[in-house]
Amino acid sequence: MTKDRSQNFAALAAGVLFGFGLSLSGMLDPARVRGFLDIFGRFDPSLAFVLAGAVLMSHIGYVVSRRLRHPLFEETYHLPKKRKIDWPLLTGAAIFGAGWGIGGICPGPALAGLALGILPFYVFTGAMVTGVLLHDHWPKHLLPTLKRKPTSEGSAAESLSR
Fold first, then answer.
1. Distances from the Cα of 161 to the Cαs of 81, 84, 156, in angstroms?
2. For the chain, what are the domain ranges?
3. What letter does residue 138 receive in the DSSP assignment?
4. Distance, CA of 28 to chain centre
5. How far, in Å, CA of 138 to CA of 130, rounded?
6. Reduced to 3 states, what is the DSSP secondary structure of residue 53?
7. Over the stretch 42-87, which tens digit does the pLDDT of each residue have?
8. End-to-end CA distance of the chain
9. How confident is the model at residue 150 (pLDDT cuts 50, 70, 90)?
10. What are the angstrom distances between the C-alpha of 110 and each of 17, 30, 33, 82, 127?
């Protein structure tokens, strides 16, 4: 099998396994997700086990990857260069979290839910793709700049990253 086909097969296998795990864990049920996030109402702690399992598996993957010289289908790891926490990151995370809390759906379960033919997942995914396309093709000159004048103590983003 060629390198590209191996990468595609590995990505497909990982995606199918991820989707199966989301379905099995109940993450495709928006009411269950909202119940987990509703700590002052009808709190459903069952997804805490899903979270703990995900963190454990991620940790194992990280430990294994640190012992390898390179990934299985690549010559080198492609790690993010940007390491500072800044306002665009925090804003995006807040918008993502609010949307997830209100809708009970996030991108992973939405894509997995497409295979089940559930209408709200198609609506959510359509809106998500529209948002991505608008962001990618929105005229950059119409966006407000997020640059701030540095103070003597540094910028707010720099202070967050300390």
1. 15, 5, 9
2. 1-79, 82-162
3. S
4. 15
5. 11
6. helix
7. 888 888 888 898 899 999 988 998 898 888 788 888 888 888 899 8
8. 46
9. low
10. 15, 10, 12, 28, 11
